[in-house]
Amino acid sequence: MPQQKDIVKIAIQMPGAYPQLIQLDQKKPLSAVIKEVCDGWNLPGSENYALQYADGVQMYITESNRLDIKNGCILRLTKAPGRCAEDLFKGIQSSDAGVRCDSLKELASVSTDVTFAQEFISRDGHLLLVKIVEDSNESNVIMTHTLTGFMELMDHGIVSWENLSSVFIKKIAGFVNAKSTDASIQQVCLDILESMVLSSHSLFLQVKQEITMERLIAHLQVTNQQIQTKAMALLMALLQTAGDSDRKDMFDFLTKKNVRQYIYKNIIHSSGSVQDEMAHYLYVLQSVTLNLQEPRMRTPLDCCSQEQRDILHGLRQAAFETESENSLSHERRRSLCAKEFRKLGFSNNSNPGQDLSRTPPGLLALDTMYYFATRYPDAYSRFVLENSSREDKHECPFARSSIQLTLILCEILRIGEPPSETGSGYHPIFFSQDRLMEELFCVCIQLLNKTWKEMRATQEDFDKVMQVVREQITRTLSSKPTSLELFKNKVNALNYSEILKLRQTERLHQEETLAPPVLELKERLKPELLELIRQQRLNRLCQGTMFRKISSRRRQDKLWYCRLSPNHKMLHYGDVEEDTENPPIETLQEKIPVADIKGLLTGKDCPHMKENKGKQNKEVLDLAFSITYDVEEYSLNFIAPSRTDFCLWTDGLSVLLGREMSSESMRSELEILLSMEIKLRLLDLENVPIPDNAPVVPKPPSNFNFCYDFSQTEQ
């Protein structure tokens, strides 16, 4: 007798027949199960049939995935993948265009299943698709189905992209370069080229040679958002795969064509918001562009480099009008230089290059200082001379401040960090401003001098001033300014006194000094408010959240949804399309009983983070969590869309597991609720009568002539 845990109760459907309700024995071979089902419907040749999920992603059931079948699943008896592959292989070669079209359309649909893909590829079906593309004799509809099916087959990684012929690559590039190609064909071709570029450097070189940047940029200027997004995806793949020299050439070309400004005006500014996928590519473009500064950031100043020494002395000479140095003796000239370098704010007067030996920011600090001195010479001279005339203890050291400010900007803009696969936090100002790093520095170094004076700082306050400046920059950038001028106005308005007010407001929410009776009241209120937060977390899990799967190639078509059942007993989940919003719980084909959940893992302890050890950055690790179930043999892995969603889900799952909530969101919300409740309880209501019933709402007035008529002033 099979054990109870090996039995799964399921329903099996077949068109034109009554469903069969069976108890699936997981120990019995799948072929024997299929034979029993076929016998139940008097179907001969059980080897020609297979089981498939009836709902959601209609995946074939195999010996390797059969353990994923849960109680209550609905399966369908259908053609075996080998038989299906054979029929489609023949249909694609039919002389009837209608049969070919129907076969290719079905192929594009069923190729998402890896079992079918293996069968079709084993018959060299992918080569048949390649030949159709190379011959290019079919209609646009047939060609679209062909390319879609090919893309789905290749997506499984069964066949290497490097096996493709140069003729095929030229055809795909030709579809993208052509001006009159069908939009559906161009979308798939852009997708295929992106995968090629990301798969190997040799294919990157071939695609780079075949695709014209002018045509790729033209695709960004169309109204079709899908083509815009896929063109941006290919552009990002080319930029990320290119070497330093090729990448710089491509950026120079993009700059020459004003592509960033076009993106700003027509994608960001005109729409007001962008889709998640496009937001990711804008973030990648920003990240890759800013990372062009990384080599300079990682390189210390070379004291033997005459060019770098000349720049240092150029900074000194631009700040101070001195007599002709050629007429001075060596000792006198050396003494004068040391004095002026000290006034410039260098710690090592005799050898200022030593101040730039730290990496980061390395030579990037020298670049930003020199840019400020040459681009805004009046502001530069005013900064240096103003501080030279102050008392020693109150002067703001230009060089030391510049080096630290450059480092702060590198950290805020994440220069040197590879773009995250899930990142979408781009700065609109990047797309409206060339040389963003240098221009931000020029604004912020003057802000630093202003803040230094507002704080009446001395040399001992240097770190404190830099912390305030970092906060001013971070808070201003978080408001998403769309131009440098807007950033400049906002950051200068956020002066030191405003920072203190903001800190004070935040501190009142976090660190209230309470008297002992109030502390006692606070402790009494906590259980009630914690229960309120628990209910909110469970309600949020019942609403559900859309999660994105991690992919090394592309982000589209990689979405799934998860939600808790209203009775809090079952966790439902399943794959969904991009435009799906709040799918009904019945459409989510997978489910896990809450009673089977054994543990909650976060960060680097998650199985999907261990599998990609060394490839995930801190941003992804901070959003990762997993649940283990069925004696911890299985896990469901998540990457939260945001830190807020991470906190909501980990708190909610903790409640389901009977554990304490521990997220920072919970602590913050608890403090806010406690603060509000305590203030209400401590209101001075002595001698204030509080009625038992709500007051009666008065009758409306007989007329509304007392209302002001704005239409008169508008006229």
From TrEMBL:
Output this protein's name.
ELMO domain-containing protein
Query: What SUPFAM superfamilies does the record point to?
Result: ARM repeat (SSF48371), PH domain-like (SSF50729)
Q: Which GO terms describe its biological process?
A: actin filament organization; apoptotic process; cell motility; phagocytosis
Boundaries of every ELMO domain copy: 307-477
Against Pfam families, the record matches this protein to: ELMO_ARM, ELMO_CED12, PH_12
InterPro entries with a match to the protein in the record = ARM-like, ARM-type_fold, ELMO_ARM, ELMO_dom, ELMO_domain-containing, PH-like_dom_sf, PH_domain
Does the keyword Ligase belong to this entry? no
- Originating species: Astatotilapia calliptera
Instruction: Output one GO MF annotation.
Output: SH3 domain binding
Source domain of life is Eukaryota
**What is known about what this protein does?**
Involved in cytoskeletal rearrangements required for phagocytosis of apoptotic cells and cell motility. Acts in association with DOCK1 and CRK. Was initially proposed to be required in complex with DOCK1 to activate Rac Rho small GTPases. May enhance the guanine nucleotide exchange factor (GEF) activity of DOCK1.
Gene3D superfamilies per record: 6.10.250.810, Leucine-rich Repeat Variant, Pleckstrin-homology domain (PH domain)/Phosphotyrosine-binding domain (PTB)
Task: Give the taxonomic lineage as stored in the record.
Answer: Eukaryota, Metazoa, Chordata, Craniata, Vertebrata
Keywords of the record, alphabetical order, are: Apoptosis, Phagocytosis, SH3-binding
